[in-house]
Write a structure and sequence with these properties.
Largest sheet of chain A: 5 strands, parallel
Oligomer: heterodimer
Structural class of chain B: alpha+beta
Low-confidence stretches of chain B: none
Helix content of chain B: 25-40%
Number of strands of chain B: 7
Distance between the termini of chain B: 11 Å
Order of helices and strands of chain A: EHEHEHEHEH
Low-confidence stretches of chain A: none
Structural class of chain A: alpha/beta
Largest interface: A-B, 22 and 33 residues
Helix content of chain A: 40-55%
Order of helices and strands of chain B: HEHEEHHEEEE
Shape of chain A: globular
Largest sheet of chain B: 7 strands, antiparallel
Strand order of the largest sheet of chain A: 2-1-3-4-5
Number of helices of chain A: 5
Shape of chain B: globular
Number of helices of chain B: 4
Radius of gyration of chain B: 15 Å
Mean pLDDT of chain B: 91
Strand content of chain B: 25-35%
């Protein structure tokens, strides 16, 4: 299966870094969409088939946690896998996110950490 | 306060090293702040304590930082160089706040911004200040962390 990925991150540098890490991995990528805010991300999801979303929490217009709620509340998005990539370090906040069924990658991260989470998540989705 | 300062040093060095591949050296190059032009960014945070974390860097660091983070062969454009410094500030702030707030508290970071000067309001008695300097071969950085008492 070739994947459509959406990277939602206000930092252009971090978006490029995530894209580069995905490119050098063994994922079968079809297209990587980008948005620097939550509102733009919703529009991309509405108009495209997305398999995997990377979300930062502290993004403008619509915070990442609100974006995740919006994605999850739509049954059409039931098969979208979500990975939060954030410097968020509050256990309370991280637990709240994990309870929604998303994965969490803490910044700063290594390419291996990101790959491991992606591969683990996708293998579970394919089970 | 000393423990917070030690944590801030440890976290900041780790982030500059892991993300930007910049290796700290002895603080003998601090004079660079007086001889080189500098740039500064900040991140505001809201929680039990409110405040701001500034990251100031000599301009010599910015192209190296962005180039290393992006794993580019060429020097990235200026907007990406500032974006790299903003992201460093964002990550330092997100990682240090649990040591101030407690890891079971929820806090919020706002979008990083470019700063010209330190806002006067942070120089009042309402705010605590922790300041650290980290020097790299490529230049010097200073982190100024202000938070309500």
């Amino acid at each position: 299966m070739s994947l459509n990925v959406l990277v939602v991150e206000d930092s252009a540098v971090m978006r490029s870094m995530i894209k580069r890490i995905l490119d050098i991995g063994d994922l079968n990528l079809n297209h990587i969409y980008e948005s620097d805010n939550g509102d733009g991300a919703i529009k991309i999801i509405e108009n495209n088939h997305i398999d995997l979303v990377f979300v930062d929490i502290n993004i403008p217009v619509m915070r990442g946690d609100v974006l995740i709620d919006k994605i999850l509340e739509n049954p059409k998005n039931a098969n979208i896998a979500i990975i939060v990539v954030s410097s968020e370090s509050s256990f309370q906040m991280i637990n709240n996110l994990l309870n929604k069924g998303v994965r969490f990658v803490h910044k700063p991260f290594t390419p291996e950490e990101l790959h491991n989470v992606v591969n683990d998540l996708l293998s579970k989705c394919n089970e | 306060m000393n423990e917070l300062k030690e944590e801030l040093i440890e976290i900041s060095v780790k982030i500059f090293t892991d993300l930007g591949f910049l290796m700290p050296v002895a603080n003998e190059n601090l004079y660079l702040f007086n001889t080189q032009s500098c740039s500064m960014v900040y991140v505001d945070f809201i929680g039990q304590h409110n405040g701001r974390l500034y990251v100031k860097a000599t301009n010599s660091i910015l192209p190296v930082l962005a180039k290393n983070i992006l794993a580019e062969d060429n020097i990235p454009p200026t907007n990406l160089q500032f974006d790299a410094l903003k992201e460093i500030a964002n990550i330092i702030c997100g990682n240090i706040l649990p040591y101030l707030e407690g890891s079971n508290k929820i806090f919020r970071l706002l979008t990083p911004q470019i700063a010209e000067t330190i806002d006067k309001k942070f120089k009042t008695k309402r705010y605590e200040k922790i300041e650290i300097d980290i020097v790299f071969e490529e230049g010097a950085t200073q982190i100024l962390w202000y938070f309500t008492k």
